[in-house]
Structure formats: C-alpha cells, structure tokens
C-alpha cells in the first residue's frame, strides 16, 4: 500500500486535526478540526505538504498513489453531497486552495468553481435556476484557471469586462446580466485559446490536476518566495492543497461571504468583529473592491446565520483559547465555515489578548508570554504622533495597522524600494495593494491606500509587517503617472512629506512630530511575566546618560557596551583628540589627553549615575585614528590653521594614517598598545568618576572592556596598564572600586585561544559585528554589492549582519564559551553587537549559555521577550 | 639539600657532558666533554641555565644554595691549581664567560683576568716575573669589568690608551711598556670611580658576583635579545656562566691564543683551518685587530702545541663526527683548550661536510640531511656573479661568506636599515663590524669590511646569516662622515651601486650581472637523500611556464598555486578585462570574456606542458575588479577614449567599485558567483587546453581551485558551473580529462564548516596569507604601522605573515584538516601561501598532516629539506 497523501474531512469526521499543521497546513488542519467539532464545513480533502515536497523531489511528478487517493476522496465527497463531479445535472464544484503551515496572506493562489464545463454549467444553471449566476461562476472560473494555472495576464480578462461595462454604461460587475456574462465566457475562452493554443479543458479531472499543479507551483512563485524570505519561513515546508466542496455566497441576496475576528485584531479588545459582502464570492472580500457590512447589520440581514456564527465563534474561541480569524460563506441563508486560524494581530492587540486570556483564566502566564512575537513588540515601542501637536489633518481612512509613519510620498513600489535604498524614509501611497507590492511595502515607513477594508491586502500585510497603515481612504485622488496625490485642494507630489496615523486613520500633511508611547499598564504587566520566565540578562548599548535612562525605563539591567569614541567626536573635544593624534611623541599625546580627561570623567560620572547599581561596560577607544581627522582640503586647511601646523604637514599625517583595510588596521587594542597613554587616561577617568560617586555612597560597577584582542599578551599588557592606573587612582582617592577588566571576543583568533585569554580576562563580550566580518572575510560596508545577491540566490539564508550566522559565527561563539568557561567556570559572557536585539540571535545566545545580551534601548523589551521565549522552550539553564 | 646549580670540570673529570647543553650551555657542555676525554682544559665550573632562570624568576636573586656551591667549586679549582683566589703570592685568576644552548657569537659578554686586585696583582707579577704582563692584565680586567659589569662606555678607557700611544708616538698596544700600563690602570680606576661613585672592587668574590650578575644580565641585553629574535631562539632558555681558570696567551712570544675549524667553514673542504695570534688574549682574535698566523706557520713557531692541537682536533672530530670550531690558548708553549663546539658554516660547506662525512662513513644519510639547515640552503640557490661578465674589479678582500651581493653603498648600520625599509637593496660598508651592527647587517644584501679576518665579527655573523661578505679588504679608504669609499682612484658615494663576490673576495664597481648556480653534483646527491626521507609533497607557486620549468629543475612535484589574475594583467589582455568590467550586462561580459578565452587557453596549455604528468592547481580569478582599472585622471581619460565611453561614466564605474576594505570585499568566489560567466570562461580555457594536450597523449592533471569560500553553498554553486562547462567541453572534444574541483581554505568560517565543504570539495589548499589576515583581523598592508612594535614588545613572538602563527592560525588549520578528513578520509590538502617555503611553517605542515606545501620556485629545495627534517624528527606519517 502506498503512503497516505490525502486526508478527508466531512460529515462530522476528519482524518486530520488541529495538531497536523505540518502535514495539512494551517487551513487544512483548521477545516479538519472544525469538522471534528461538528461545525458545518463543506466536505473535502487535503493533499498533504509531504505530497508537495515529494512532487518537487520527483521532478514535478505526483508521488505514487496520490492521484488514486484524490479520486477515492473525491468519490467520498460526491457521496456526502449526493452530487457528481462534472455532472450534467447537478455537478459537484470544488475550490482548490493552498495552505501552508504558516499563513501567507494573499501569497498563494486559489481556484474557485472548479468542475465547471460547458456540460456541467447547464446542470448548475438548471439546479440553481439562475442563469446569470451560472455564467458568472463560469467566467470567474475561466479567469482564475487561466490566470493562475496558465499564467495568462489577468488584465486581459478584466479588460473585456471593462469594455462590456462601458458599452452598457454601468459601473459594477453586479450590474451585468446573464447575457453579458455568457458573452464574456465566450470571449474569455477565446483569450484562453489564443494564449495557450489549447481549448479550455472540459474534463473536470484535467481541471483538478491543473489546479493542484498550480497550487504546488505557487509555492515557488516569486510572491511566495519573497514572503517567506521576509518572514524567515523555510523553503522546504511545502504547501498542502485543500479541495473543498464549493458553497456559493453569490446566489443572490440570501447569500454572502465574509471574514471575522473573534477579538479586535487592531486593539485586542474582546469584541467580535466581522464583515460580510452580500452576493459575493471570497475573492471579492479580500480584494476590497466593495465595502462590506458589519456584524450588527448582518444580524438583521441574516439572523439565523448570524446566530450560528456567534455560537460557532464562541465554541472555537474556547476551544483554541486564542483570537481567531474566520472565513465563512452563507449560501441560501445557511452558514458554512471555510476557515479558522489563529488571527494575525497588531502588537498592541497581541499584548491585550494575551493579558485578557490570562485574566479570563483561559491560558497561563507562560502561554501568554509565548503568544507575543518579540519582533512584533517593536510596534509598541515605536514613536507615535504627538497628540498635542498641531497637525494639518487632510483626510481620514481606516486605522488598518497602528503606529505613526512619517516619510516622503512615493506612488509605486519600485519608487519605494529605490528611495529607501538611498536612505530616504517613504510612505507608499497606492489605490490598493496587491502581492506584487510586497517589496515596496517592506521598504516603506507606512502604507496608505484609497480602497479596501480592514481585511484588504494592504491592511493584513501591513499589520503582519508591523508597518503603520491607513487603508480605504476614498478621499484620495491618486495619479500614479503624474506621481501626485490630491486631497480636495491639497496637492502632494512625490518627495513631499506626509504622515499617517495608523492607530486613528488620520492622514497628515507634512512631517508630524512624534513621541514615544508610555510603557505602563498592560505593557508593564506583560513585561513582569517576561522577566519571571527569562533567565538571560538584558543590558543596553548606551553612550549617553539619556540613552542609559531610556534603557532603564525599558528594563535594561546595565550597560553592555559604552562606545567611548562617540564621546571623542563631540565638537568641543575633537580638537584635543586631533591634537593628540598629531603629536609626534608621548609627551605631546599626554598633554592633549590631559585636556580630554576631565570631559571623559564627567561622561562616566553621568553614565554611572544613570545606571547606578548596575554594571557599566566601557569599551576603550576602538576606531582607527584617521576617522578623527578631516579628509577634504578645505577642512584640512582650517584644521591646520587651528592646530598651528602647515596644511602640508597635516596632509602628510593624514596620508600616513591612511589604511587600505581600516577594518583590519591600527585600531582596537592595537591603538592602546602603541599609545598606552590613551588607556591610562581612560582608566583614570573611569576610576576617578567611580571614586567620586563612591564617596557619596553610590554603588558603581565599572567593567573595563578591551576591544579587538587576538592574543593573551595583548590583553595582559593592557590589563597591567589598567590595573596600575586604577590602583594609583584608588590609593589617591582612598576609595575601593569593584572594577573588572575583560575583553571583547570579536576575532576568530580570540575564539580559538579563548582558554588562554580567559586566564586573565574577567569577562568576555562577543562583538558579533566584527566577528561576522572576520569569520566571513566580509566587510559590512562593502557587502552591499553582493550580499543581497547571495540571499536571493540562497547562498546565504539571510544577511549574517542581521541575524547571527549560527552555523559559522555561532560555532565560533560556542568554541570561545567552552574554552573560556573551561578555565573560568562562571565567567560572565555577553554579546554587544547589533545581534543582541534580534530575536533569533537572542534565543541563540540563550541556548549557548551567554550571561546577557546587550542591545539598543528600544530593543531591550524585544530582547527580553525573545529571552523568555528561549527559556520557555528550552528551560532556563543559563546563569544570569 | 639544595638543588645542584653548579657543575665542576677539571683534572680529567667533569660533572657534565656534551649532552647537557640545555643545562650547561654549549660552551659548558663542550668544556665538560673535553675534560672527560682527557684533553687539557683549565679547570673550572659552570653555573647552570636553570640557575639563570631561577635568578630572574626570583627578581634577580641567586637561588638558594647557588653561591655556596660556587664557593665550594672554587675551592676545588684552587686545590687542583694549587693557587688561591685573590692570593697575594700566586693568585688564581678566572675568566667568566656566558654560554647559552645555542651559540650566539659576539652577543654575550666575557670578563677575563677576574680575581686581580692591587694585592693579588703583586703576586701575579712576582710569579710571572713580568711586570708589563701583570699591569696589562689588570688594565684589561678593569676595562672589561667596568664596561661590562658597570656599563661604563668602553671608549672612555680606549681614549686614554690612544692618548698614551699618541704621547709615545706608537701604534700598537703591544708597544706600550709596564709603566704606561700601570699609568693606565690608575687612570682607568679613576674613570671607574667617576662613573660609578665607587672604588674598583678589591674583593675577588665581589668581583666574581659582579661578573656572574653581568653575564646573567647580558641574556636580556639589547644585543642578545636582537640576536635571539633574528634567530628564533626562545627567551626562556637562559644562559650558563662558565668560570674557568685563566690561562694566558699574552705571556710573551711563547704564548698565544687562537681559533680553529676542523674543516673549512667556507667551502667545507676537509682541511684543518686555524689562526693564532702570538702574545695575545682571546678578545684580540675576535676583534680582528691584528692579522693572525696560519696553521703551517704555527707548526714552526709552536711545534709541540701544534702537534697536540692536531691530535686533539683529530680526536674531537671523530668523537663529535662533525666540523668543529675550537678555541685554544698556548701559555708558555703548553696548549690549553678553551672551547669546542660544532662550527658555523656556509651552506656550501654544510652540504659538502655532510656529504663527505657520509662518504667517510662517519655519519649516515639521515644524519647528513639533518645537519644542513633548510634556511641556510637559500645561500646555494641565490644568484652569483656571472663569471663570464666583464666587471670592473676594484679590490679584493677575504671571501668571508659566499654568494654575490649587489646593492647601493651605505656606510652605517642605521643607513642600511633606513634604506632597506624604503625597499632599497644595500651593501653595508664598514671599517669593521661590532655586535651593534647586527640590525644593519641583517638589512643588507652584503657586507664589506676593511679590517678583520675570516673569524672576525663580520665574517662569522655574515656566514650565520647567509649574507655574502668580503672582509679585511685594507685597500678601502672609508670615510663614514663624508659617506664615501675610496679605492685608489675610484670614488663610491652613498647610494652608488657596488657588488661583492663573497665566494672570491672580489669587490666590483656598479651592479654586476648575476646568474643562478647549477644544481648538480653535491647538491643533487644531497637532495636525493632529502627526497628519500621526506614524506610531505612539495609543489611550486607558478603563473608562467618559465617559473614552472625553473621549479621542476628544483624538484617541484606540481603546481600548488597558479594565480590566474596575473595572466589578466598582461598589457594586451587588460583591455579585454576592462571591457568585461565595464559591461553592464551578461552579454557584454561574455563578449569581452570571449576575447580573453584563447589567451587563457594558451596560458594553460603552456603551463600544462611545462608540468606534464604533475598536478596543476589553478586558482580562479581572485582580486577585486577595481584592481584592473586605473585610478589616475590621465589614465582614466586615456582608457575612456580607448573604450569609447565618457570619462565621467568610467569614473562613476570606478567609484562604484571602490571598497572600504578590499580585502573583505567583492573578490574571490564572490566574483564568480555574481558573474558566473568568468568561471565558465576559465573552466572552458582549462579543459580545452587539457583536451588539446590529451589528444597528443599527454597526461594533464588540472585541479580547479575556488578561492575565498566561506560556505558550502558557494562552493556547490561554482562547482556546478565548472562541472557543467567541463562536461560540455569534453563531450565536444571527445576527450576525458581527470580534473578535480577543490577550494582554498582561507577564511575562518571555511575552517569551522570544513566538514560540510568537504562533502563537495575534492581537495583543500590553505591560503594562510588571507587566513592569517582574517584570523587576526589584521591587514598585511596596514600591519606595518604596529606589527614591528608588537614583535619588539614581544606581544607576538614573530611576524605571523613570515612564519605560521601555530597557536592561532595553526589551530584553525588543524580544525579544518580534522573536519575535512572526517568526511573525506584521504582528502588531498596543501598550503599555497608564502608560508609554504618557510622552514618552521613547512615542518608544522608536515606535523599536522598536510599532503603538500607549495612555494616559490627558489624555495622548493628549502621546503623539501625542512620537510625531510620534520619527517626525520617525527617519523613520516603523512600521506603524500
């Protein structure tokens, strides 16, 4: 017997259930589960993801037994429905839909009304008694089959409809009658024949094969591939194919089709939210072409179906203990459920729903924590438009995805991507969006559409991306060709600033002032749970007291990286720094450093005060010295005058300092080894600042961090300088400061000799930016030319500067941890690269046993949540 | 009981022997061995190297028991000599000499005549009956003790001698009488007092302590440290101190002091070679101040001593089975041996002696192979002055160190170092050299001195360094101040070219033409033995047929690295290369590549023919493309015209290609991944060339090597391109070529994922240049600013680009080997960086199990010898 490739559902019993998402996809598992719960689902069957993968592995051939199983299941459906596939009298029609493990809205293609042919159409018309309905169903089927299965440009079909509408002088499809629909079918078939050189298939089994193949093929279609790449979904999951008995929402005013959320997907409010389009098929809803009716109106129009829907949503909500996204169709007043799945939601909604469910005792705190995606949390922390600011609101649309976006207006996805590449912040303005716009949407700060509802493509995708979106604002007159937007008397051209408030739907002229939301209430309650389950420490990267205070607000447990060079760039200090660089001897350098000392001391004092009681890790001067010098003639001349040297001498010094590969040059600890006086000054400033505060009874925990160490000797040499200086300062001050001296691990060599370095270093902090650069031999500044190409060609699964390359860089980290802890078992080890705020990297850091991660202030809650997720899924074995 | 720190020798019995070099140093072990052999050695004792290390570890304090043991051994010497240390009547005097495990000529300090004081001097004069001798001994002692133990400028003493000589109108020290010597002693003591604020010590034990301390201290003196650094001798070996009864070569004409070699150290000829200075102490010989007498003259002057010396040298030669360097003194006609050690020799001598000893059946072939230092072999392979060339010989000196040197004349060591740093080749011209000149000598192509014999400082050190040297050419009138050299009517100024022939002693005006020596005779016989014991393969780096042929002559077993980009730079090709770079699309690039294809095919055909039967590893295009474009305005304008584009467009392209860190940029396999057509063209050229030759019945073994691979996917991607192209070419040609596709391992990531890469790669070749750069995060081009400083401060033991950093880079190599061979057990693995010709690196490659090393043609024999040494010391476990 061959393997089971096909799973049946119908008449109250299904072969699958909600836990078989890997095999049946989200949609298939949901249909099976609903069937098992006794909820009315049109019978059908699901071809498994295994079948999809087997199909591609075999070179696009069905695996053995699959087709036989399809036929067998089709017969079972025919039996329940008492109809025959392709029948001339009462034909069984089916929908064919994709359904992967993860929901990919709008990405996968669907074919409806499959099974229709000249012959069976007659049966459909006879049976429904509605000729227009029959021909409409047929022309929709030809359109979908032609465009999806045969890749005919959909516009070719739409164009014909437009011509007919124009001829009749009508606006909407619904105004076309049976004759026009029939006429369109003839024209569509001609288009089909012209484009494919084949007749439109009469055989319903041939149609079914074509549709199954198209669903499979769509898994590797450009849209789906892009979506997976953006969302980090692996390519080898495959998609299932759901073949389901057709029910019709377009059988007149007693029918309709709709979508619903069991709670508000935007705010999380515990309020059922639904929309239904009367006399429509599913595709009409998603496309956002007409504006649907809400739940209260539906209760009047479809009282029985509405009551059933409320009961079902209640049953499902309790069963799944989560907010659900439902799809349904009412055919002749009878409700059919077509889909249930955990609904996408905004970060605010995710948080509110998780908290409410805990309060309702439906889920526990651990579950609540695991229900919110760390990356999503970012939305909550993003700036919002200052409610007190006087802004010019020019229109209002639907608040489709919350948050504020400010950017320059662009009118095509291509423009959005181009401008963004140049570093511009843009707001993408479209009539409506389609899957082709994914790239441009991802590149934009915000999305604004003139058409479509809360479940339109733009709204769903924007929420998924965490991008603010205002949808369906029909006051907008968009002219893509002229690259402009008119709202009444206001004209906005490409490049003009525009702001949108995705939380209210407001559209604002110009760049509105933005503020940061408060982090109390729900957020605070949730973060308290996060902190309860998390074992990995979370610190912040901060160079200023303001950053440090902000990070403490977000719950940072210390500073993991203070980059002292940022303190050197301040206008009033750069002069002394340059004086130091231009000195030819130790004395000259010391003299210049003496000028910097009091400023550094003040910096550290303020930073220590802001982080009182928490450790503060200070990285010593890191960048090559030429970064502090000007490179343009004019500035060089000015500086020369200021410094009292000739421009020629200054130029010579600058050219002496020029490096072919600054990344691999005279920087990091190499600076302090050649100029130990810099290390002395920095140590003096730190310890003096700590002593001053210590005298006032404050607990200061400085951690001195030496960058770019490759050998034990380098570290020993500089540690000796630090300790000697620190001891002298403390003796003079009569104070004792508990300081430690550790090192960054950011070179491959440091990883492989970590056991020797750990003999002297009191802590390690992984600098995964530089470690990635050296492990790959890849300059971050130069990688732009080929790295996107690498990701496109799947040579790299993703940009290793965004998420830690676990198989390479990660292996080096593990090596260094094992070697370091072999010598110093409880050694404190952290990470201070930008990876420290990226959820997958944070989880990795938890798994490999780091003590803490350090990230930018705004990413502290994200890192904490990722850490909690990691602890909940692996158990908390890490030491803080 | 405390540890034994002191080892006695005397009266036919010694506590040490020749195998205790680690403990007693070379000199101490030699003295002990000679004593045990019954050879007349003045009795004494050796303070061990362990005592030296213990002394430094304890903060310059003698270890417990050491001083007591010194006193005890001193008493034993007194007993044998029947004299008392510091005695007023017949005082025992001693010499105090350093002696490390490895001979460090002129590096360590020696104090003679120790034990003399106002009181004991009387005894010495009474006993010798020679007042001048006594006062001369005393003034020598004050000089040595003052300058060495108290760091008084020796010139202060010499200046007084000069004044006295001037006053008397005499030239040589020997012409000074007792009165002058006495007068000098008074003056010297006054200098001593002025410089140290102490009286010159009367107590001989205080003197002894001072001298022992000075010998210990000299181990970390600047000269010794430099020498160790240049010769790769570790700092923690320590030096022994030899305290030995004084015998006097300056007791008149019946006395003398000399040095000898049991075979000729320059040519290796089996001919005893000795020099003796009558009425002189050891220091006079080494300084090369007077010209000594040879062996035949000595036989007349000192018949008994000469006969004894011949017997002793015969006995020692057979005992040690090697060429020996002897030091002796004749005191009152009686011969005393002061030192025996294996003698330094030129490469030619080393080779000849090793071969002769095999022929004489004194040693076996393995021993012969291990007797020649790989680095030394370099001398034999160096160019020599074309004997047929018409050159202007302007003078002749001693042929002190063989080989030809051509360079610009410099007159100080500082100048030599400065000019060399600028990339100039220099010949250092000095009156005589001293240990202070070590740095300048190392920086020079050749050394020319006006004074001193074959055993003068210049001669000994130059031979050790393998640097050509002509010594003792008294025709030279050197004016250091004017920076010029006059030889009769010829004037050579600083910067003028001069050539020396160290094999003949000729000095030649201008830059003489040089040729390469033939590699037959002794050399061929020796290399045959080397090949017998060696297990590591040795290939060459060669980009041209000429290089390939030269390397085969040297015995290369294939090409380990052919850098194809060198073929791209040729003037007639660069145009097509630039055309390719400037193309905006695949078609344009393919068109340009089609022009390069026939040239590449021709290159490979010639290379394959030159290396027929051996593997040829071809690295695909590696450098960033901007390296092929001009960067100066003028050239850009010219090229733009040539290419038919605007200068602006060309400039834009060049600036697009600019990289911040080219080392880490768009290069290596990244080029071929973004432009697979380059990889296709190169594969086509290789396989077509191989097919053409294959048709003629030739065996061609191309190995395609992909550079800068970091991930398996990169390699897979390009291997697929190579294989597809190669299969198509072979199919078309109807030929089958056995080619392999492998990768360079030159990135840390490749090392750590070597197991995955090895699934597809058929061989590995370590690119240790780039691997060192990325492991250290260190650009070779930029490291010059701080790397010397690092080596100076001992943060790195040596430049990791010269000799493999075994503790870091080497660990990565081991990791990659273990991972690669774990997947592909017999995988061929080589190295093709410049380390492949450096002896210590070659030995390391043998130990870690590489299949072969690849190096420049001239280093092939060196690599082979190093490989044989490694095999002989570890056993040959490597697969070829």
Describe, in plain words, how this protein is organized in 3D:
The structure is a homodimer of 880-residue chains. Chain A has 880 residues and is an alpha/beta fold. Chain A is built from 35 helices and 34 strands. In chain A, the strands form seven sheets. Chain A has an eight-stranded mixed β-sheet. In chain A, strands 27-28-29-30-31-32-33-34 form an eight-stranded parallel barrel, surrounded by six helices. In chain A, a hairpin with a 2-residue loop joins strand 12 (324-331) and strand 13. The longest helix of chain A has 25 residues, at 586-610. Residues 875-880 of chain A have low confidence and may be disordered. At the A-B interface, helix 26, helix 28, helix 29, helix 31 and helix 33 of A face helix 26, helix 28, helix 29, helix 31 and helix 33 of B.
Briefly summarize what is shown.
2 copies of one chain form a homodimer. With 880 residues, chain A is of the alpha/beta class.
Task: From the structure above, extract its key features.
homodimer; 880 residues; alpha/beta; eight-stranded mixed beta sheet; eight-stranded parallel barrel; 34 strands
Structural class of chain A: alpha/beta
Number of strand elements of chain A: 34
**Main sheet: strand order of chain A:** 15-25-24-17-18-19-20-16
Ranges of chain A where pLDDT stays below 50 over 5 or more residues in a row are 875-880
Count of helix runs of chain A: 35
Largest interface: A-B, 50 and 50 residues
Look at the structure and give the mean pLDDT of chain A.
90
Tell me the helix content of chain A. Answer: 40-55%
Please identify the oligomeric state.
homodimer
| Shape call of chain A | elongated
The value of Rg of chain A in angstroms is: 32 Å
Q: What share of residues are in beta strands of chain A?
A: 15-25%
Distance separating the two termini of chain A: 54 Å
Largest sheet of chain A: 8 strands, mixed
């Amino acid at each position: 017997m061959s393997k089971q490739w096909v799973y049946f559902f119908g008449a109250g019993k299904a072969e699958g259930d909600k836990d078989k998402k890997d095999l049946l996809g989200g949609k298939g598992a949901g249909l099976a589960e609903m069937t098992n719960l006794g909820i009315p689902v049109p019978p059908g069957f699901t071809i498994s993801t295994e079948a999809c993968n087997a199909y591609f592995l075999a070179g696009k051939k069905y695996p053995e037994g699959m087709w036989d199983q399809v036929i067998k299941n089709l017969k079972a459906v025919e039996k329940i429905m008492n109809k025959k596939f392709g029948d001339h009298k009462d034909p069984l029609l089916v929908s064919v839909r994709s359904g992967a493990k993860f929901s990919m809205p709008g990405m996968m293609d669907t074919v409806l009304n499959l099974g229709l042919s000249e012959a069976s159409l007659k049966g459909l018309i006879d049976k429904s008694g509605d000729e227009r309905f029959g021909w409409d169903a047929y022309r929709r089927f030809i359109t979908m089959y032609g465009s999806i299965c045969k890749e005919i440009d959909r516009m070719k079909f739409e164009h014909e409809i437009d011509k007919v509408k124009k001829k009749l002088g009508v606006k909407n499809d619904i105004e076309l009658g049976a004759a026009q629909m029939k006429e369109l079918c003839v024209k569509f078939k001609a288009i089909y024949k012209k484009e494919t050189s084949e007749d439109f298939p009469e055989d319903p089994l041939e149609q079914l094969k074509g549709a199954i193949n198209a669903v499979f093929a769509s898994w590797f279609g450009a849209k789906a591939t892009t979506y997976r790449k953006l969302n980090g979904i692996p390519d080898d999951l495959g998609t299932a194919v759901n073949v389901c008995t057709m029910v019709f929402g377009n059988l007149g005013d007693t029918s309709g089709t709709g979508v619903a959320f069991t709670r508000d997907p935007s705010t999380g409010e515990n309020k059922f939210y639904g929309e239904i389009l009367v006399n429509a098929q599913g595709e009409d809803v998603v496309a956002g072409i007409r504006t649907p009716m809400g739940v209260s109106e539906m209760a009047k129009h479809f009282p029985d179906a509405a009551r059933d829907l409320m009961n079902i949503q209640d049953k499902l909500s309790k069963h799944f203990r989560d907010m659900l996204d439902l799809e349904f169709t009412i055919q002749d007043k009878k409700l059919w459920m077509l889909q249930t799945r955990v609904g996408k939601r905004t970060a605010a909604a995710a948080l509110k729903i998780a908290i409410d469910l805990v309060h309702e005792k439906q889920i526990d705190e651990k579950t609540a924590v695991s229900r919110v995606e760390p990356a999503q949390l970012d939305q909550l922390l993003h700036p919002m438009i200052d409610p007190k600011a006087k802004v010019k609101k020019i229109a209002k649309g639907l608040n489709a995805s919350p948050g504020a976006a400010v950017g320059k207006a662009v009118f095509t996805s291509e423009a959005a991507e181009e401008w963004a590449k140049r570093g511009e912040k843009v707001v993408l303005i479209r009539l409506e969006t389609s899957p082709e716009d994914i790239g441009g949407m991802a590149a934009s700060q915000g999305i604004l559409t003139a058409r479509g509802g809360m479940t339109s493509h733009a709204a769903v995708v924007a929420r998924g991306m965490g991008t603010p979106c205002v949808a369906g604002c029909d006051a907008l007159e968009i002219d893509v060709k002229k690259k402009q937007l008119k709202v009444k008397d206001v004209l906005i051209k490409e490049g003009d600033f525009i702001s949108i408030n995705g939380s209210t739907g407001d559209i604002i002229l110009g760049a509105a002032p933005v503020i940061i939301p408060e982090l109390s209430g729900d957020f605070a309650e949730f973060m308290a749970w996060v902190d309860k389950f998390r074992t990995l420490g979370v610190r912040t990267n901060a160079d200023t007291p303001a950053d440090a205070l902000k990070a403490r607000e977000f719950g940072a447990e210390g500073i993991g990286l203070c980059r002292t060079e940022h303190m050197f760039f301040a206008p009033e200090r750069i002069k002394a720094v340059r004086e130091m660089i231009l000195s030819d001897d130790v004395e000259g350098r010391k003299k210049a450093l003496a000028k910097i000392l009091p400023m550094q001391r003040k910096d550290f004092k303020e930073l220590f005060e802001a982080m009182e009681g928490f450790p503060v890790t200070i990285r010593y001067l890191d960048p090559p010295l030429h970064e502090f010098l000007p490179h343009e003639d004019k500035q060089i001349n000015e500086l020369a005058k200021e410094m009292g040297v000739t421009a020629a001498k200054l130029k010579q010094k600058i050219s002496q300092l020029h490096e072919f590969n600054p990344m691999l040059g005279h920087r990091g600890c190499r600076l302090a080894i050649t100029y130990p006086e810099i290390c002395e000054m920095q140590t003096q400033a730190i310890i003096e600042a700590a002593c001053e505060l210590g005298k006032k009874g404050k607990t200061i925990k400085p951690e001195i961090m030496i960058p770019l160490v490759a050998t034990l000797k380098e570290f020993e040499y500089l540690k000796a300088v630090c300790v000697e200086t620190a001891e002298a300062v403390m003796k003079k001050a009569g104070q004792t400061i508990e300081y430690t001296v550790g090192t960054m691990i950011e070179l491959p060599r440091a990883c492989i000799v970590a056991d020797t370095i750990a003999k002297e270093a009191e802590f390690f902090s992984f600098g995964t930016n530089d470690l990635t650069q050296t492990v790959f031999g890849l300059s971050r500044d130069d990688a732009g030319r080929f790295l996107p190409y690498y990701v496109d060609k799947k040579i790299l699964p993703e940009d290793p500067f965004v998420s830690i390359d676990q198989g390479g860089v990660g292996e080096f980290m593990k090596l260094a941890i094992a070697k370091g802890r072999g010598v110093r078992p409880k050694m404190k080890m952290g990470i201070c690269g930008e990876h420290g705020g990226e959820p997958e990297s944070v989880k990795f850091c938890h798994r490999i046993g780091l003590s803490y991660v350090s990230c930018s202030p705004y990413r502290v809650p994200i890192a904490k949540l990722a850490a909690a997720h990691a602890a909940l899924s692996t158990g908390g074995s890490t030491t803080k």
